[in-house]
Amino acid sequence: MAWTQKQFTLPSQGRGSHLITPEILSHLPELKTYKLGLLHLFLQHTSCALSLNENYDSDVRADMSDALDRIAPEDVKGELYRHSAEGLDDMPAHVKSSLVGASGLWFLEFREGRQSRRVVATMQGEKK
User: Fold this and answer.
1) In the chain, where the domains are located
2) 67 vs 12, 82, 96, CA distance in Å?
3) Taking the domain 2-127, which CATH number applies?
4) pLDDT tens across 11-59, in order?
């Protein structure tokens, strides 16, 4: 049984749902050395999320972002949420990340500001 762990940063892409399967694979060339096993991806932030979902139609990503915005709207007047110390888009981002559970791998950015995000990848399995 072998273990590998590494950290990398996803570049800022702005608010929305972004397909990141190719980017994840480029950061983890070690995956090709495993015959079988598990990959655990941990996003070190609470106002964005990772999700497995359909990869066929890009409209699905846009519709998902729109649906989440309707469920947890941004608090433009500062009246919907008590927590607003980090900005009016912060609390809706926390709600959205709680709703999105852990086929392409999507990165869902819920904040307006463009910032990079850190990911910890842990691979466990049997090497080839």
Assistant:
1) 2-127
2) 22, 22, 10
3) 2.60.120.460
4) 888 888 888 989 999 999 999 999 999 999 998 888 888 888 777 688 9
